[in-house]
Design a protein that fits this description.
It is a single chain. By secondary structure, this protein is an alpha/beta fold. Helix content is 63%, strand content 9%. It is built from 33 helices and nine strands. 39% of the residues are buried.
Length: 642
Amino acid sequence: MSLNQTSLNAYSRAEPPHQSCRPTGRVVKPPRQPAARFALVLPWLVLAPLMMTSVTRAAVASAPREPLSCQVVRFSDVGWTDVTATTALASELLRTIGYSPTVTVLSVPVTFASLHNNNIDVFLGNWMPAQEADRSRYVNDGSVEVIGANLTGAKYTLAVPDYTYAAGLRDFKDIQRFAPALNNSIYGIEPGNDGNRHVLEMLQKNQFGLGDFKLIESSEQGMLAQVERAYREKNPVVFLAWEPHPMNMRFALKYLSGGDDVFGPNFGGATIYTVTRRGYSAECPNIGRLLRNLKFSLRGESEMMAAILDRHEAPEIAATEWLKANPTAAKAWLDGVLMFDGGPAGAAITQAIRSPHPGGFEQWIVAHKIPVGDAMAVAIDYIKAHGTFLFDGISIVIRGLVNGVTALLRTLPAPALIVAVAALAWALRRSIALAAFVALALLFILNQGYWLATIETLALVMVATVASAAIGVPVGIAAAHRPRLFAALRPVLDLMQTLPTFVYLIPTLVLFGLGVVPGLISTVIFALPAPIRLTHLGISSVPKPLIEAGEAFGATPTQLLWKVELPSAAPTIVAGITQCIMLSLSMVVIAALVGAGGLGVPVVRALNSVQVGMGFEAGFTIVLLAIILDRMSRPSERGSPR
């Protein structure tokens, strides 16, 4: 029924209106009765809730809904704990509002290249101005967009422990005076990093008289392990440091002044920016709003990093607990941000943050975790605390051997060494073609500028091979004579060959510090099974008639070993040593991650900085060196003139 009809019916049921006796000159409307007033209000009482519901639904429906492609958000984590922490916080927030974040560990140059190629969406760790060289060309061509700063007041430059600072090393120009105590070394993080690049440029330009210094590159945690080792023994050390980071609370350190031309003013004062690939905020405006809201603090990041580094929590667990403890920050970051399905996100943040631990059976299993890792950590800490003199002695011996071989090879002029190696190849193989190939290959390595790195690698391989053979051949002989010993050794050898090589680096890094020592020990562990197995095979394969003939002539066990078994098993034993050389050479890249130097450094640096030319040059050099060593060390073929 229409409004007019309702009004007419109401009037028809009402009493006749009373007319006023006073003339007014205008028509006087009759007063409305309560029923008429109710009839006028009733439609609005019924329609208003329906209209409000329709308006709300229309508003939600008209909210900008992102395409399904926006649900997966691809982050880059460059392996620094601060970037890991902020990425984990952003990922956890996105997860609570219906998105599916993924995190890929990449170096800084690879991160910007991936943003350029649309393989990564977001990077929260753009330290400026340190990363200006990595970022500028991508920002200039528009393939990378800067969303805004997410942290201010950061620092990034060289630092020393407070006792070294008190001893007088307070400025970049003071480093040279402490060269002998510092072993002419500065410790950096992963090869290809922007901070390492600044230090390398400083050394190459001989700024502050540091041209004879070397940069030992490894990783953030590798560098900090070396700093902890030096700090415990009160040895001077210069290293890359930055804030925010728990190292500022863990160590009493001082930042060096005078490095404005290298790292920038105010101790490398930095602002950290959020960057995305081209057009990402326009394509996914809801995520763009969240990224603009993300503003971190020095204290907040330090708390997150302390949870990851000191309490050994997984980043996602640390992020969940931090968000639960700081709901105000979470709500500020989600201001104006919607759930992926279009609903408001701020009101749901408290309920949406998931429990840091799974529920049900999985929770019970996780809660009763077998403490394998904790037991190993306690054991390593105990060994480190009570075996300092032993490990220091081992380090001195190994470092002395490798440095001695390296120094000997460096003493010889490059042309003389090339001629000597070619002559050795001819003497071993009586092959002019092989000698010519060796000479040409070494000349090519010299031409490409990798001569010193090749010498360092060759010294490492030589010492590792001698050590592996000195241990492996006697153990293999003993295992061949004692079947029970070999049965006990077999699972150990299987473990040594199948355990990821990176695992070897962790305890050796903690016990021996950065440098050639952990690299060589890890190489020996990895290569040792080859000479043991092949020596065992060779001795076990000696024909029985030969052994019986030796025994018939009255040979003692020692004579039998030296005059019958070893000559018969020699080709197999030599094959084991050849395999040991190849396995040692395959470890050069792994050893470079703990500061061992050599040809692995340019390979890792090229990988982290996306330098195709450098990577191919260094890789081809390793291949040439492997061919030379293989051809010169392999056992003679049957029927050869030799």
